[in-house]
Write a structure and sequence with these properties.
6-stranded mixed β-sheet; alpha+beta; about 55% helix; about 750 residues
């Protein structure tokens, strides 16, 4: 057990308390103190021992409590102890009341359950956040993918429109094209390249064109031979002058000569053909003559054969593919010019030979130079190459068009993907999908954790039966019970209806019942537990007051008849501390404890004092006057009457006079006027002189430390305090002499 409090410093109003002269604690300890005296602060010191940590409001607190076994418990918490404290901090930590709608208060029990519920709410909030994040990422990824999908559909439609021979084509057919880029968009095609590819796609298949036959053999031998023929001369000794002078006649005669072989008369005039004339003509048209003309005829034939027979009709523009038309025009002009130059030179020589052949006896001069074949051969080769290009395309028309189609597919696809920066979108989609996947993974983990906590909370609600049993013992009936809701939280019920508009007293009683239930949870040994109970009857009516007194006695006390003193009276806890501001509750508990032997209980007072302008509290042995009078009203009268008769300049006494006077006047007015009004309304009925009434009112207001901290820091002087106290007592004596005499009789 605790033996005594050694010291308390920097712990709220206990700023410098030393308890060395304080009577040692007993198994049962009763502590009395008015509101704001420091009673709850003292309970918080014990709660620090329970928690093993300083109260957050007093981080610099220092204290030590001595144990009966000689050990010391202090602010270092090096020595653990089993302490359980019921006070306002316990109620805030362990119970929550949700009555925002004014009905159906919900009770969530247990500090660990509250922590789990808070953890559950945090995880559920985190789950909502993660799910929102997952959904947002999925939505964004879907939106970006929709942009890509829409663009792919539009691109596929364009390809079908631009390439009518492509057949069935949709966005699925684009994927292999895009995949072949390996994440990098290809360079854009020039307008000329696109136009060329379109021409290949739209072209009709052409027929095979004949090859162009151009002789590249040298023309020089034939040319030289022809020139020699022009210069060759026949022996003219036997020639006939008239025929030489008249080539046309000579030609006519030469031809007619062959028609008159073996004839004696002329076929034309039927005149006689003389032998000497035939002989003369034969001499003129000799073998040399015939030989020369024969060679000239062959030369003409040979020269004409070397002419180039090239006609545009054989190679029309329409016979070539559209993209070859420009080249066709250019090479065709070059070839035609080279052809015309060659043919013209040859024809000039042929014309000279024809002239020579008409007059073999003359020397004929050639007009042109020998033609050069290089230009013709080069032009012919270029045109032949164009023919071969066209023919090759015709032979591989299908594959060429397919290649052009592939080029345009790639081009249209690249242009469409370049507009939306596809690969950047894919990176963003991958990023959003990773966020979604990470959130999904975290959600899976979080869902498992939430399930575990929900199971733990569900298991925790099994304590509802134990709480209901305690409530039944406290209230003496099954008036208020805890029922488990579907969400594993507790609802307070009155019978079959939710308990509505619970009073503060009922809430305090329910909280206290829960505290008693928790004392035994998880196998805790009550006999090894030091219990501190602060104000278990706050705002309770007389019915609950008796209940809580009986409840505490039945829970913590056992009488062992026949056992020797002091073991006849047994504290079921290791040690019990009870503090209260209620004078009635104090005396009910004191009456019970007085039936025990003296070593079993102690009675103390938490007193708030002021010294040198500093408000402070201390724990002292409870004065006999408080223990003797069951009525707080009677106690206040004795304190005031004693001071009026024997005023002392003792700050500890003067400090409390304002508060005692106020409480005394309120008590008198309550039973005398049967109404609960503040002193502003009742003082004028008690003290009829308005000036005296105002003096008393200001004294009670200004020096009542329960109203404001500023007023509590002020001291009335002794003469003022004595005058006001005497004024109030005289007013009561004048107002009700019989009542005052009864008060005096108790002194």
């Amino acid at each position: 057990m605790f033996r005594r409090i050694g010291s308390i410093r920097s712990f709220g109003v206990f700023n410098n308390f030393t308890g060395g002269t304080l009577p040692e604690f007993a198994p049962f300890n009763l502590i009395y103190g008015w509101n704001y005296s420091g009673k709850t602060t003292l309970s918080r010191l014990f709660r620090c021992l329970e928690a093993g940590a300083l109260h957050p409001d007093y981080p610099n607190a220092r204290f030590d409590i001595q144990h009966t076994d000689g050990t010391q418990h202090d602010h270092g918490f090096a020595t653990p102890c089993n302490v359980r404290v019921f006070n306002e901090d316990f109620r805030k930590a362990h119970l929550r009341w949700d009555d925002a709608d004014g009905f159906n208060p919900i009770l969530l029990l247990g500090a660990e359950n509250i922590a789990k519920r808070d953890e559950l709410k945090e995880k559920e909030a985190k789950r909502t956040q993660l799910d929102d994040q997952r959904r947002a990422a999925a939505t964004e990824a879907k939106r970006l993918d929709g942009i890509i999908s829409k663009t792919e559909t539009e691109c596929a439609t364009q390809i079908v429109r631009e390439l009518p021979n492509v057949g069935r084509f949709n966005k699925t057919n684009l994927r292999p094209i895009i995949a072949a880029w390996n994440g990098t968009l290809p360079d854009a095609l020039s307008a000329e390249e696109v136009q060329a590819a379109r021409a290949k796609v739209s072209a009709e298949q052409k027929d095979i064109l004949p090859d162009l036959a151009v002789s590249a053999d040298p023309i020089y031998p034939l040319w030289s031979e022809s020139l020699a023929l022009l210069n060759e001369q026949i022996d003219s000794s036997t020639t006939i002058a008239r025929l030489l002078e008249n080539p046309d006649v000579a030609s006519w005669v030469e031809e007619g000569r062959h028609l008159h072989e073996g004839k004696s008369h002329c076929e034309f005039c039927e005149g006689e053909l003389r032998a000497d004339r035939k002989e003369a003509l034969n001499a003129h048209f000799s073998d040399a003559f015939d030989n020369l003309k024969g060679r000239i005829a062959k030369a003409i034939i040979a020269l004409n054969a070397r002419k180039m027979e090239f006609s545009g009709a054989a190679y029309p523009r329409s016979g070539f593919y559209t993209d070859l038309h420009d080249e066709h025009a250019q090479t065709g002009r070059s070839l035609a010019q080279a052809r015309d130059d060659l043919n013209a030179a040859i024809q000039s020589l042929v014309d000279a030979l024809e002239l020579k052949r008409g007059n073999p006896f003359d020397v004929v001069r050639a007009q042109g130079a020998e033609p050069q074949l290089d230009r013709l051969v080069e032009a012919a080769q270029q045109f032949q190459s164009l023919i071969e290009t066209s023919n090759e395309r015709t032979r591989r028309f299908a594959s060429s068009r397919n290649e052009a189609v592939a080029v345009l597919k790639n081009h249209y696809t690249a242009e469409a993907m370049r507009r939306i920066d596809r690969f950047s979108l894919e990176e963003e989609i991958a990023s959003q999908e990773k966020i979604e996947a990470d959130a999904q993974s975290a959600l899976a983990t979080l869902d498992g954790q939430i399930t575990d906590i929900q199971v733990e909370l569900s298991n925790a609600t099994k304590g509802a039966e134990a709480i209901n049993d305690t409530l039944h013992r406290f209230f003496g009936k099954a008036d208020i019970q805890v029922k488990v809701r579907d969400n594993d939280r507790f609802m307070l019920m009155r019978g079959e209806e939710p308990a509505r508009n619970l009073s503060e007293g009922e809430r305090t009683a329910i909280s206290f019942c829960y505290f008693i239930t928790k004392l035994l949870e998880n196998g805790n040994d009550l006999s090894q537990t030091i219990v501190y109970i602060d104000d278990p009857i706050s705002s309770l009516d007389a019915h609950h007051l008796l209940h809580v007194c009986a409840f505490i006695k039945n829970t913590f006390y056992r009488l062992n008849p026949g056992a020797p003193k002091p073991t006849r009276h047994e504290c079921l806890a290791k040690q019990l501390f009870i503090s209260t501001h209620s004078h009635e509750f104090f005396h009910l508990m004191l009456d019970w404890m007085r039936k025990m032997t003296d070593p079993m209980y102690r009675v103390y007072l938490v007193e708030r004092t002021d010294a040198n302008g500093l408000t402070a509290s201390r724990l002292i042995e409870c004065p006999e006057s408080i223990q003797r009078y069951r009525s707080e009203y009677l106690f206040l009268f004795h304190q005031m009457a004693s001071y009026a008769e024997n005023p002392q300049n003792d700050h500890q006494i003067i400090f409390n006079l304002g508060n005692m006077a106020r409480r005394f006047v309120e008590g008198y007015a309550a039973f005398k006027f049967l109404e609960h009004t503040n002193i502003d309304s009742s003082i004028d009925r008690l003290i009829t002189d308005p000036i005296d009434a105002e003096r008393a009112r200001k004294f009670m207001h200004f020096y009542s430390h329960t109203l404001t901290r500023e007023a509590g820091m002020q001291f009335p002087d002794m003469s003022e305090a004595q005058g006001i106290v005497t004024l109030i007592l005289d007013a009561v004596r004048a107002h009700d002499p019989v009542h005052y005499s009864a008060l005096e009789a108790t002194r």
